[in-house]
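User: I need a structural model of Porin family protein from Mesorhizobium helmanticense for a docking pre-check later this week. Nothing fancy, just the predicted structure tokens so I can convert them on my end. Input:
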Amino acid sequence: MFNTARMALFAALLAGVAGPVLAADFVEPPVVEQAPAPVYEQPTDVGGWYIRGDIDYHWSDFRGADYITYGPPPGTNSFSSGDLKGAFSIGGGVGYKMNNHFRTDLTADYWFNSDFDGATTDGVTTSTEVSKMSALLLLANAYVDIGTWQGITPYVGAGIGGARVKWDNVRDPNTTEFNPGTSNWRFAYALMAGASYCLTDKVILDAGYRFSHIQGGRMFEYDVSSSGPGFDSGFNTHEVRGGLRYQFGGNNGCAAPQAVYEPEPEPVYTK
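Assistant: Understood. Predicted structure tokens for Porin family protein:
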């Protein structure tokens, strides 16, 4: 009887220890939910109005000039040489970005005075001629934005419009004679290439090169020395430009990527 009591007590103790251990094998482990990474995409609704401001340094190829003389003998003479110095310009414009790859704008640029040094000859003597040239260039432009990498967008473009060219008096600094300068509108076009960089989701830095051609026109009028008027043959101008564009409507393509899909978290079990 004593042995039976001891066996019963041992069995009870064994059941008390083994019960929780066996129960642990049948309890489901706690669930820890780990959210998967969301999917991001660049906004596709790119487009809207923008304004721009630019500054540049330009230099022009003077393509020659002719002028009339009344004798003796009468006829048409040409400048034997001519050179336009470099100068700065400022400009602005308003445009519309249609999508990620195409935009247009209207621009106006004022070219500050470029010094002109030239010479004329009658076959015997050579006269030095000096003046200044400034211009207002108005263009309607279209651009192709090639693509964006690390916030940098290369582009190419073209523009067409007109320029109001203003010549100061053309004079010989060694005499008191001069020909009054003229102002007139001329046909112009431009080709450009460059790159833009996103500074913020509204502001873009723009840097590039522009080639512009301005058609020839009247350069100066008749003077008392019986020469004139004169006509220049136009200019090919090279511009190194920099400026800012501000998008005040829509999306300019610089906005941060947006989460477009966030999948439901899947349960992850831990042992």
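Before docking, keep this in mind: Helices lie at 2-24.
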